[in-house]
Design goal:
This protein is about 35% helix and about 25% strand. The protein is α/β, with parallel strands linked by helices. Helix 3 packs across helix 4.
Length: about 230
């Protein structure tokens, strides 16, 4: 049982796929408890890994920002943590489109700064992070994909989006080369892509990453409007 369950509201987002079929994403919503000086708040979307799929919100709180929020961590963002349906993947095009619709819904409903909307994910969610940023480059100001990978054919679509990737050197679930390839290709064509590699963490490169306040400062240093001027 979570220690402070009321800090994240439980919701369900209903959306229509390309075939007109109704689909749903359960999601957790966190809003900063400390008053913010800005009139609009930044938004962070978090995508979990394959083991947290389904409709059990306790699974959704197993790792990353939802776990840390439940433990009392405060963030300067609205944090939205959707849950992927069983037997599906975040990087599926239908789910990528659904994530974009969810993001736009949150932006309109919760007074979000659309210039400071960010995306992060781990493992399966790392793949989803790369995929969503490539499909919707004007939606996210910066991304943090953790132990994921991407279709190298999408490198040009990722060039405009600052990306800071993280991966374990000895990862035996998603090999390090998956991050190295896409970061290297995006950087080669002039994109702002970097990679931090950890030793001795195996697949779990997310725990140390999400505990690092520097990544959140890095996200907040990027705004879409500034990117457009570049």
């Amino acid at each position: 049982m979570s220690s402070v369950p009321s800090r994240q509201e439980e919701h369900e987002f209903v959306w229509s796929d390309s075939q007109g079929q109704k689909r749903t994403f359960p999601f957790l919503l966190y809003r900063p408890s400390t008053p913010q000086p800005e009139s609009k708040l930044p938004l962070l979307i978090f995508l979990h890994g394959a083991g947290e799929r389904g409709t059990d919100f306790q699974l959704a709180k197993k790792h990353g920002p939802p776990k840390l929020i439940d433990q009392g961590e405060d963030y300067p963002f609205v944090v939205v943590s959707p849950q992927c349906p069983l037997d599906q993947w975040w990087a599926m095009r239908e789910n990528v489109d659904g994530l974009a619709q969810l993001t736009q819904f949150i932006q309109s409903e919760y007074n979000i700064d659309t210039n400071r909307t960010y995306l992060t994910g781990m493992s399966m969610g790392g793949y989803g992070t790369w995929a969503a940023a490539a499909a919707y480059p004007e939606l996210f100001a910066a991304i943090i994909p953790i132990c994921g990978g991407a279709d190298l054919a999408n490198a040009a679509d990722l060039k405009a989006t600052p990306a800071w990737a993280f991966h374990g050197r000895e990862d035996d679930i998603v090999p390090l080369i998956r991050s190295e390839e896409i970061v290297g290709k995006v950087a080669k064509i002039g994109g702002d892509a970097r990679l931090t590699i950890y030793d001795n963490v195996q697949h779990d490169s997310w725990s140390v990453t999400y505990a690092n306040r520097e990544i959140y400062d890095w996200l907040l240093s990027h705004e879409i409007r500034n990117r457009r001027k570049a």
